[in-house]
Amino acid sequence: MMNDNESSFDDGAKLSALVKKARRRTILRNAIISLAVTIFILAGGWFANLQLQYRSEEHAMRDIEMLKAISGPNQYILGFQINLRLSSWYA
User: Can you tell me the distance from the alpha carbon of 13 to that of 19, in angstroms, rounded to the nearest whole number?
Assistant: First the structure.
């Protein structure tokens, strides 16, 4: 009789250890999956933000070039303008 009790206690201890080990593996697996998903989402967000900034920069540079083209044709062709009029000093 005593042998049966020891055997069932031993089986219960093994089962308990097995459940604890399975629980630890599940927690570790979930942590690794969560970390991988977090890194993937952050990398995707960083890449999307970079693309949006480049697109915004392209539009801004295009607008600046268009403004230069229509605001002063002589300045746009020469690149800079020097004001050498003396009449502005005497006015």
Answer: 10
Contact 27, 19 (CB under 8 A): no
Rg (the chain; Cα; Å): 37
Amino acid (one-letter) located at 18: L
Burial 47-63 (b: 16+ CB within 10 A, else e): eeeeeeeeeeeeeeeee
- Which residue's structure tokens are 């993937």? 40
pLDDT tens-digit readout, 27-74? 999 999 999 999 999 999 999 999 999 988 888 888 888 887 777 665
**Angstrom distance (rounded) from CA 17 to CA 10:** 11
Say what the pTM is: 0.52
Distance (Å, rounded) from C-alpha 28 to C-alpha 16? Answer: 18
Let me know: does 51 contact 57? Beta carbons within 8 Å: no
